[in-house]
Each structure stands twice: as C-alpha cells, then as structure tokens.
Design goal:
Helices cover about 50% and strands about 20% of the residues. The chain contains twelve helices and nine strands. The structure holds ligand C2E and magnesium ion (3 copies).
C-alpha cells in the first residue's frame, strides 16, 4: 500500500521499519549484557487471604535495573527474553536467588508461600523439571511452599507436555496456578484434564467489578466455579475497598493488588513479613 502512494511514502515506511528492526536488535543485545552484568532482580507482591486479611504469600516479579536510576517493568522486555530464550537462564538465576532470600521467611510465617511465573519457553524445555528439582534441593526450599503460575495460553500450546509437567509438579507437592484466568480464549475443559490448584482471575475482570454489573457477574461465576471444583480463587489487581468488599461477599479466597501493596524489593517484603 505504501508503494502505491508514491516514492516518498515508501521511503518513510521503509525507514521506520528499518529503525524498528535496529531498535529491536539493540534491545536484544542490551538484554544479553544485562544478564551478564546481573542487572535483573525480583520484586515481590504480597497476597492476602480474604477471610481474615492475613498475608499468606507473594508473587515474585521480574525487574530490570539498567542503571541505579532506572527500573524497567516486564512489559518492556519480557517478549524479547522469550524470543531469544534468554528467559530460561535469567529466570532460573532469579528463581535460585528468590528461593534463598525467601526461605528464612517461611519460618516466620507458617503459611507463607512463594509464587513464581513460568513462561511457555521454560515449560517446553526438556530439562524443566530436573532443573526445578535441582534448585529446590540446592536451596533447601520446600516444594509445598512453592506455587508456579502458568497462563492458559502457555498450557494449551502443547497440551500433552503441559499435562505431563503438571502431573509431575503435583507429585512433587508444588502448587499450580492458572494466571490471567479468563483471558485465554481457551476451553474450560482443561480444568478437568489438568491438575490445577489455583485460579488467578485476571485483573481486567477485577478492575470494574465495582462499576460494571457484567464484569461482576463474570467474576462471581469464576469464583463459584472455583469453589465447585475445589480450586482456590485469587483476585488479581484489586485497587480499592469496594472491590475488596464485593470479593469478600462472594467468598473469593485470596487477593493481590495495589489496594494492599505494589510489588516491592525483597528487603521491604521481608519487613512486612
Ligand atoms: P502477571 O504474572 O499477571 O503479574 C501481575 C502483574 O500485575 C504485575 O505486573 C503486577 O505489578 C501487576 N499488578 C498487580 N496488582 C495490580 C493492580 O492492582 N493494578 C494494576 N494495574 N496492576 C497490578 P508486572 O510486574 O509488570 O508483570 C507483568 C507480567 O510480566 C506478569 O503478569 C507476567 O506475565 C510477566 N512476568 C513478570 N515476572 C516474570 C518472570 O519472572 N517470569 C516470567 N516468565 N514472566 C514474568
Ligand atoms: Mg506493571
Ligand atoms: Mg503472575
Ligand atoms: Mg496475571
């Protein structure tokens, strides 16, 4: 189409594309250096039980600190880590560090667990379970205090492999959470076929439950379904007290969101515990 509009347009279109490709190559090369220079870190966002408001866990979230004054969130770079498979070494390193940091906290709060996000690239890697077990052994982190978050999208990319891995995780005592639940356009039948312990209802549904009747109905249905299937329900992205009250009223099990805390450096999470 740009070509049909004449030479100049074509040139602009072309140079933008070229610039984009250059930016991309540059960012990827920068991410490699970031890995070598140990510029990645984990933040922790607390999770609470709604029945008594108790802090019961935290989700570990990746951050990139290219300089002491910058903090980059995953939306800016996680796709590139996936694309280049850098996600595998980076997050294993982060996983090991998080287990070491988190472990002493387990004694201070007997219910506390750590939740960690796993990408499709990691799940399809043949060494996934072996590596996971190795790091749990190395750090002496109890499997029962670990939860892994997987999206519906990740699980349906390779159903047979996912089922196999989830069974092994369950056998190890690791809890399995479906992240961003409701956004995956996938069939609910996987809830029947996969061993799932936790549903994390996506924040896009939680965001308007206090103002949008339809969203509230959808969330109510997800909570009821979770209860009937004996799966723990977690509301992601809760930002105000009205949302909290509605979720409590519907007996949603747990919640996480800016209403309670934003993701924070480990040192701050430690103080909180
Ligand atoms: P996620 O796993 O669904 O994580 C929740 C995201 O929601 C986090 O964004 C968190 O900061 C944000 N959030 C929490 N509460 C609220 C709230 O009340 N309001 C709003 N607006 N947002 C809230 P973050 O840390 O930017 O991470 C984005 C995504 O990047 C994560 O979504 C996850 O898919 C991915 N990610 C983060 N860390 C890792 C990691 O270590 N490994 C992998 N594979 N993916 C990761
Ligand atoms: Mg964010
Ligand atoms: Mg998550
Ligand atoms: Mg999520």
């Amino acid at each position: 189409r740009a070509k049909a509009m004449g030479r100049n347009t074509y040139a602009i279109y072309d140079s933008t594309l070229e610039q984009k490709a250059k930016d991309r190559v540059q960012l990827i090369s920068r991410l490699h250096t970031a890995n070598d220079n140990d510029e990645f870190d984990m933040f922790f966002q607390p999770r609470y039980r709604l029945s008594d408001g108790k802090l019961i866990g935290a989700e570990a979230l990746l951050r990139w600190q290219p300089s002491p004054f910058e903090l980059v969130e995953p939306v800016e770079f996680i796709d590139f880590l996936e694309e280049t498979s850098l996600i595998i070494p980076v997050t294993w390193q982060m996983f090991e560090r998080s287990c070491i940091q988190f472990k002493p906290l387990l004694e201070r709060n007997s219910e506390l667990f750590m939740s960690f996000n796993i990408s499709a690239k990691q799940l399809e890697h043949p060494e996934f379970i072996t590596k996971l077990q190795q790091l749990l052994t190395l750090t002496e982190f109890p499997a029962e205090r670990l939860e892994l978050e997987l999206t519906e999208q990740t699980l349906i990319q390779n159903v047979e492999n996912s089922r196999h891995i989830l069974r092994q995780l369950t056998a190890l005592g690791i809890s399995v959470a479906i992240d961003d639940f409701g956004t995956g356009y996938s069939s609910l039948s996987y809830l029947k076929n996969f061993p799932v312990n936790v549903l994390k209802i996506d924040k896009s549904f939680i965001h308007d439950i206090d103002t949008d009747k339809d969203d509230f109905e959808l969330v109510k249905t997800m909570i009821t379904m979770g209860r009937n299937l004996r799966i723990t329900t977690v509301a992601e992205g809760i930002e105000n007290e009205e949302q909290l009250n509605l979720l409590k009223q519907e007996s949603c099990d747990q919640a996480q969101g800016f209403y309670y805390n934003k993701p924070m450096p480990f040192i701050d999470f430690k103080k909180l515990v």
